[in-house]
């Protein structure tokens, strides 16, 4: 037996919905965006600023944390929350996505995945059981099953239906083993399954049905944003989201741009994670209401405007684009810090606006205005 | 005519003293430590955290700011305070120290210093007049005269008295030109002279007398911490500090360790700047009450203690040494951020304790305890 996840849907507008997800470290309002805290921190931002900007839950990466600091250190801190001093909910991925990104350096068998540590070359073996054991030690509020993230392309060819089918079926068997291990650990948190199947609708349907048979606390849509043409994301999302029963939280993994997120909420998705706001911040790529800004561009050298006239984050309240341009050009750590505050504020504030507009049954209008503003590129 | 600087000495304990230095952007309590904000920011810390940790005044580097962003940008922001959004006092160096650190890439004449920009190789010419013009545009609360920082060694030989004398006399002529330009600019801020003369007491004395004849608002001791044996610092400091009349602020440039600062306060010094707390932070070298810690050391891997048991900074209140070790090992920007908060807090809190102990006429006891604690290396 696993614990029952209390997910309340409190308002709806079309298929889009507002929910309350009650986890062991607190309740989060959905739709929610989860900043990515890879190896024990969200890069270039302090937890105080994360909280001030409205982060409710962050994501940790199992593979990174397993390799460094290692589970003995996490255990002596009694879990990831204490180690990183983030007492709100944490979701962890299973490590699968990261392992497979090593590509030729990893070998997949029925049992699991053998690979060489990118840190020190030591041989590691990750299995569904191992992944769940690690996530149990981390004490993640939401544990993700260990699966194979089906790629869009292998070498030069787009993955065939047969290949995608084999991959999806392996993932289903690993999902079952993940759930068995989760129960064996008597884990009191919650576990989500991940729908795979590539870009084949029949495989996606087989995947969700198999996962529903096992019976998870929530369902993620995986294997998107893996290099496919943009229209596939929309097509698969529109197909698969309604197949996940509405009483479960729906989580679209690794997505994406503000536009992708708005579109996914429109299709009933409740949870998101993406490195885009944080990684792009460090590269000087900034999200604003009126389009994206590459702050290194020389046209901002003497631009005395604030970054985003609609934004009230610490960065926008205090500094000119000219100053942010200067910090980026001179490669100051402070550029990454100020840009990260802004980009995360942009994403988290967007989620706020989404939730409010759904609550007021004005999501369609909000969505239209937001997308228009974004594409205006003032 | 230049404005009269209001520097009140409010209490004394031996030669050590507490003062109030009234500048155009606010009053600072001395003895004061000035965090270094080289190119428009104190690296890896937000101004909010600088203020929370008790920074009263920061230092900016004329040469860096002249090269980037350039004076047109600073002018359109109406000064450095607005550009970097630090509305408390700022002291700027004259650019001399940085130019001379380029060594063989710069050529000194009576008129000034020719050098190639380390950014783009373009030929630049810095003179006393130019330096003061730049600092006037920056609107620095305290402008430093342009001088030659006499080195301890040239090539393989320790600088001779003749060389040190020539250098000191050039600096005196440049000091006069700096003052003339400061007056020509009708600058409403304050200007400090810099005592040079290497490690020759007679030259140091000639230097301070020459500067006093010109008549500055305050006097800095330059040309120390330039690679000389430690005892020279103490010797020159003990010799020269009493030669600066007590009604002027005394500023020891570029110094130093906590122990150096405590010793200099004991010799009547009021102001300090040093990159040590910030630069060392980024390298994982942390100052604590009970000695210094290299956080990368594997003995901290599973150390569940806070960094400094006597410290109440954000870093020490929240995190274990184990976590800080992990961030440093994984080269996270967050390591630099948390370490910088702690090291600056350590320095600024030390200055607080110094001021309180002088006020209570217990500086000697405080100093003894502090130096004992520091050397205990628990």
UniProtKB/TrEMBL annotation, chains A, B:
Q: Please tell me which top-level EC class this enzyme sits in.
A: transferase
Catalytic residues of the enzyme? 93 (proton acceptor), 273 (nucleophile)
Q: In which pathway does it act?
A: tRNA modification; tRNA-queuosine biosynthesis
Q: Which cofactor does it need?
A: Zn(2+)
Q: Which Pfam families does the UniProt record give?
A: TGT
- Where Zn(2+) binds, per the record, is at 311, 313, 316, 342
Map out region (RNA binding) in residue numbers. 254-260, 278-282
Keyword Transport among record annotations = no
Q: Which InterPro entries match?
A: ArchSynthase1/Queuine_TRR, TGT, TGT-like_sf, tRNA_ribo_trans-like
What does the record note about the cofactor? Binds 1 zinc ion per subunit.
An annotated GO cellular component:
cytosol
> Record-annotated residues binding substrate?
93-97, 147, 196, 223
EC number(s) on record? 2.4.2.29
By sequence similarity, the record places it as follows: Belongs to the queuine tRNA-ribosyltransferase family.
Summarizing the function annotation, the protein's role is:
Catalyzes the base-exchange of a guanine (G) residue with the queuine precursor 7-aminomethyl-7-deazaguanine (PreQ1) at position 34 (anticodon wobble position) in tRNAs with GU(N) anticodons (tRNA-Asp, -Asn, -His and -Tyr). Catalysis occurs through a double-displacement mechanism. The nucleophile active site attacks the C1' of nucleotide 34 to detach the guanine base from the RNA, forming a covalent enzyme-RNA intermediate. The proton acceptor active site deprotonates the incoming PreQ1, allowing a nucleophilic attack on the C1' of the ribose to form the product.
Q: Which NCBIfam families match?
A: Q_tRNA_tgt, tgt_general
- Protein name (Swiss-Prot/TrEMBL): Queuine tRNA-ribosyltransferase
